[in-house]
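Recap quiz, item 2
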Amino acid sequence: MLIGILLCLTVSACSTDLQMKVSGNLNQLSQNQTVAILPIEIANNQQKETALLFRQSLYANLQESNFNLLEPYVIDQLLKENGLTDPAKFSTINPMHLGEILGTDAVIISRLNRVERSYFLIHSSIEMSVSVEMVDTRTGEILWHAEQTESDFQGIAKIPTGIIAAILAPIYFVTNKLNLDRLTSTLVSKLTDLVKNPEELQAKDTFEQTVIASAASGDIEKIKNAEKVRAKFHPFTIDESANFMAEVETDSSETALKELVVTQLEPDSKIEPALPNLSVVPTEPKVASQDKFAVFEVQPVMFDGEDSFDLDALIEKERQDALRITASKKPERKMKTTTRVFKQSTFEIQSSAIQYTIQVGAYKTQRFAQRLFNNLMEKGYNVFIRPFKKEETKMYRVQVEAFEDKTDATLMAKKLRSEENIPNFVTLVN
Amino acid sequence: MRSCGKLFFPIIILALFFGGCAAAKVKVYLPMEENTIFPRTVAILPFTIAEDVKEKDNPPHHIFREVFFNYFSYLGYTDVALVTIDKRLNEYGVTVSPNPQEMDLATLKKALNADAIVMGHILEANNFTGGFHAETVVRAKLVMLDLTTGESIWDVDHTEMAYSGIAAPSVVDIIQEQIENSKVELAYYKSVEMFSMQVMKQIPDPAKLRYGEVQLPTITRIETNIHPNHKLGANDLIQVRLYGQPGLKATFDIGSWRTSINMKEVAPGLYTGSYTIEAGDHIENAFIIGTLKNKDGFASKKFYKSALANVEGGNPVEPKEEMPNVKRKSSFES
């Protein structure tokens, strides 16, 4: 009898199947780092309430961890603003992109795999299965990965205390909503135990090597490749590096003011085709891989303090910047105010013989060009939008990188076709 | 009468069975829909406990306050940290939870810098394990009070009970719950967690009123002196410039390897900072990431994507015995 009860206790207790691995770097997260628990992916709408409860419980439990949590309403709003409303897609988005959107150091992406209640005469059960992944947005590293199934039941195997209990207990167990709450609470408590107490980590709990999230690894590889290409045409010079901070020290206030500007075109102003100037003349504008343009007519934003800072103007400038990145010749525009000359970029492509670029699109609608520009820029490519006129119609070319060797340009074109699935052709910059 | 006698035992079992598990009912006096000026900042005061509560060794009111805070933080209120509340109350000479009837609301509002408070009072707390019987009971009353108007926003009086005994449906449950209930602190934790989970479903959540306030600081761009495929060595500098909204706090990270390196605002909207590579430093393909944080705690991040940091600082220098601990250098460490 006693053996039977013990056996029942062993096999019929609320069961947990938890498979978890964490990275040693999880320990590095401190109160200075912020983590966002993203909305939970669900399989169907019936799981909505449980998903909310799970997220709440995850949030409450992780409040006891070493890191700081971003408030859920902030997360939800920022995701909404960026059109990311489908939790099923979170795992396919580069975590670095999520880091930029949310301003967090890590994100927790979870999925409610199964919430199941079953009843069969004298047996009922509740089962819940989740998968959770915490990814470092700065590196793409998976810091915590867990798959957990938690279940409980009422039935004959628990040795009912009587006939009534044998019949009623399973019904009551499966219909009482609080039992699902309890199961959620138990599940999350076990799930987060090691994250709350990383000092208890053992070797068996940790990844054998650094694991990078698949959504990040592809983009990192692309950036590495782009780096190689850039390194080839822009070799490192000691002078350049030494001058980096000197620029700030000698002309810091001027530089900052120049950054905080907005360009206001007259309504009838025309954007002339802006082509990159391929010859390097120190005082003349050049193609800038990062700074985007060198000379431009600007109107300073007036600010007497933080309160009067024109945020919209700054955002508008960013948008305008994207369109003006290729302005190497001084654009002929009607400006409201005086012309200011931007400081030369440290990151300029300093080749005088760049001739080839890869054209990935030409659009009548600026917005479409901008979309493709943003998409490629996000992936680490040097992208340019070059307006031009075709039969009196203004159009926008989207071009990627610039090479002096046609073979290199062709290689990049192939890469764009194979990796980004973007049809393109190699063309002369001019 | 005989038939009543036959039914008596099952009825008692059923009553016990269902009795202890009623859901909490929160009375909401100030619906959010009717009040756009809803309290934002909320302080959860130290919970109190009735004097006649038997549980002297492990009074659950501290656990309850912490667990409730953890759940309550999920909602769209700005929560004052518990340690901050205690510290501020202490500064006003209040060592136990203040009674709004004794301490006027204006003073309390000023002391806590909050729009509303949550007060909790444990009316009953009991944890008992013995024989076939195990139970943990927590009965508490929680009230959220608007410190501007003095009106209750919501309150709840609920008993959370975990019971196992003669009425439990199975032998396995009886034994299991006996074991679990004997861990007093954990048993209380579970009870107050269930209490909090239930209450949370009914408390007005002002999140949707605050969506408009969510605005991250603007970073226009980030620059560094690192070059593609160039390895930095000992004593080399990683220099970073960040352009964005002026007057905020800027830091930069080198991947997750070196984080929160302070930057200095050298001109309105231009922040600079650097990190000196030390002997022994080593990192491959790390992004330089700039962060700009405003006074509300909102942070923006921008990755420098044109080059990745590669550092090979060589072998670490053996520290000399007399040498004090050398802190990693960051040019603008505060």
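The two ends of chain B are 84 Å apart (CA to CA).
Residues 326-334 of chain B have pLDDT under 50 and may be disordered.
End of item.
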